[in-house]
């Protein structure tokens, strides 16, 4: 069978890659031009960028019922002079045309994979089947990055002196033929690194999409950088250190002791549904009944937290969370079998969604293929997505009324290679920089191991301008403390430094919503915090599904200003330029 090797290399219980049935494959192929009886003369193609053991591109072209696949180590080129090695690999199922995920560790091909290009393909010298058999394929791509005439030629499936190659696989050459789309001297791989589906780079998908618990804080030589940053932060905030530490300690102790009141009531409400397993009985009247299936299914195995608990949490936290979700396109990260099982990102409205769910049609890179997405404006919709196993909710910085503009930007302090203690002084410094130019910052925990700072801009700010601002602040932080901070996107190039990720601001970029649970041990959530709490005493593990509702009842909603602020962005930019010129002059 065509997919035997594909199936042999993968365990459907462990990987998130598609394992379609024959019927599913037939339905999927209806999206493309059907293969003719005499062979495949047209269809679809995709190119994945796969950061596995070695980074490479995978060209997948439709041949009959499947996708013939070629690993291209250096990626495709638009320069006719470039001859790129293409090693033929196992055929992939047709459903792979939409696949973009982080393949979990321990699986074949583990690592992030983005949809680097996609489009239509036409075979111009006979059918695809004939070309593969003869070892010569002439093709025309009509994609988002690859366009025009290309050729694949089989060179050999043997190495030197007639012996088989180490892989035992056919070796081909892929090259662009001279035509109007040829671009001599260009480097398409370097110039266009982002996904055509999500807008992410492979590094950004890896940072966003991995569902495993965060790494332990590194030890040894990384401690020196942390100590340096801590000293600088101490000096900058010397007058308020004692007050901040006291408040943070009290807040942490209070958070840890709040497995009662609202959180407990909400949990009991959810667990009460286990007797029937039918409709959640909310603490107040809802406009629409929401059926909760399998409320006793455990989603956090190490903590015993169930789907019923998740639904109860969303109901309890809804008054604080809904303003953050309202009118914003939603990306769900679904874990149908809990945080230890498969997960997938979903923009589109699930089949069979109730008619009362608000949806909005969003444009995609393909004008003929828009996507309908859910808008969470009420508690019923929040419960509906919770019932889907949507543990994490991510939103754009834009509203559906103006998808080209954002009303805030995000500074993400990624500590995968470092620690929270190293990040805290940088977060504090950013707060001071923002205040200095007339902007505000609203800190929140990521829900995993890092920190986010949301900076309101008011409506109508183009994404390009917001990203420019984020980049400026990022560069200033790196210049302020280059031993502790970096904007290097390559993980291997970061060393033991905190990654200042300004790429979370973009028309296709999402950020974990405030109060969203994360697929992390302990049932932690992304929690807004006071600036006085942003110290080395901050305990991210204290903010969980069980403690968050009580904390919000006690501390209030800390993000209100995010939606009402109307800063003078032009004045802030002018001040930033003055600071920059002054720094250079000095």
TrEMBL record:
Keywords: Ligase
Record InterPro entries: LigD_PE_domain, LigD_pol_dom, NHEJ_LigD
Amino acid composition bias (Low complexity), ranges on this chain: 236-279
Annotated DNA ligase D 3'-phosphoesterase domain residues: 48-154
The DNA ligase D polymerase domain, residue ranges: 306-558
UniProt GO MF annotations: ligase activity
A Pfam family annotated for this UniProt entry: LigD_Prim-Pol
Chain intervals with Basic residues compositional bias: 223-235
Residue span of region Disordered: 1-43, 208-285
Basic and acidic residues bias locations: 1-16
Name of this chain's protein: ATP-dependent DNA ligase family protein
Organism of provenance: Chondromyces apiculatus DSM 436
């Amino acid at each position: 069978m065509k997919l035997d090797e594909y199936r042999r290399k993968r365990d459907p219980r462990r990987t998130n890659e598609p394992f379609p049935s024959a019927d599913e494959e037939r339905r999927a192929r209806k999206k493309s031009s059907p293969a003719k009886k005499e062979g495949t003369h047209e269809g679809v193609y995709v190119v994945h960028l796969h950061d596995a053991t070695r980074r490479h591109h995978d060209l997948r072209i439709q041949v009959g019922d499947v996708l013939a696949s070629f690993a291209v180590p250096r990626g495709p080129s638009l320069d006719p002079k470039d001859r790129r090695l293409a090693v033929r690999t196992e055929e992939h199922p047709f459903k792979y045309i939409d696949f973009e995920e982080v393949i979990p560790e321990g699986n074949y091909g583990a690592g992030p994979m983005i949809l680097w290009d996609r489009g239509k393909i036409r075979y111009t010298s006979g059918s695809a089947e004939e070309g593969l058999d003869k070892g010569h394929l002439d093709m025309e791509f009509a994609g988002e990055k690859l366009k025009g005439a290309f050729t694949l030629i089989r060179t050999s499936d043997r190495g030197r002196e007639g012996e088989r190659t180490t892989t035992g696989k056919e070796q081909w050459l892929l090259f662009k033929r001279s035509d109007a789309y040829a671009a001599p001297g260009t480097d398409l791989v370097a110039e266009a690194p982002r996904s055509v589906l999500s807008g992410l780079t492979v590094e950004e998908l890896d940072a966003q999409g991995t569902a495993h618990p965060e790494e332990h804080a590194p030890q040894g030589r990384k401690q020196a950088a942390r100590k340096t940053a801590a000293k600088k932060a101490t000096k900058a905030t010397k007058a308020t250190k004692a007050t901040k530490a006291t408040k943070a300690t009290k807040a942490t102790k209070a958070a840890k002791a709040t497995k009662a009141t609202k959180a407990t009531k909400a949990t009991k409400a959810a667990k009460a549904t286990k007797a029937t397993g039918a409709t959640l009985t909310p603490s107040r009247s809802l406009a629409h009944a929401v059926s909760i299936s399998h409320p006793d299914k455990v989603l956090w195995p190490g903590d015993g937290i169930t789907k019923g608990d998740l639904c109860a949490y969303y109901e309890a936290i809804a008054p604080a969370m809904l303003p953050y979700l309202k009118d914003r396109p939603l990306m769900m990260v679904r874990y149908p079998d809990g945080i230890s099982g498969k997960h997938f990102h979903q923009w589109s409205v699930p089949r069979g969604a109730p008619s009362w769910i608000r949806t909005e049609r969003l444009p995609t890179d393909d004008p003929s293929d828009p996507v309908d997405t859910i808008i969470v404006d009420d508690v019923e919709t929040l419960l509906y997505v919770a019932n889907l196993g949507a543990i994490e909710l991510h939103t754009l910085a834009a509203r559906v009324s103006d998808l080209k503009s954002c009303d805030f930007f995000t500074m993400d302090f990624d500590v995968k290679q470092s620690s929270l203690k190293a990040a805290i002084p940088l977060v504090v410094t950013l707060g001071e920089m923002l205040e200095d130019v007339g902007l505000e910052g609203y800190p929140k925990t990521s829900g995993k191991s890092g920190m986010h700072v949301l900076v309101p801009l008011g409506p109508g700010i183009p994404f390009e301008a917001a990203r420019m601002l984020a980049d400026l602040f990022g560069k200033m932080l790196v210049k302020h403390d280059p031993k502790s901070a970096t904007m290097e996107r390559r993980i291997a190039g970061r060393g033991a430094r905190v990654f200042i990720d300004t790429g979370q601001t973009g028309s296709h970029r999402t950020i974990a919503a405030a109060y969203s649970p994360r697929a992390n041990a302990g049932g932690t959530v992304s929690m807004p915090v006071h600036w006085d709490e942003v110290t080395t005493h901050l305990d991210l593990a204290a903010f969980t599904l069980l403690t968050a509702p009580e904390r919000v009842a006690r501390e209030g909603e800390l993000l209100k200003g995010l939606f009402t602020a109307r800063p003078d962005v032009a004045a802030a930019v002018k001040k930033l330029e003055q600071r920059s010129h002054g720094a250079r002059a000095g």
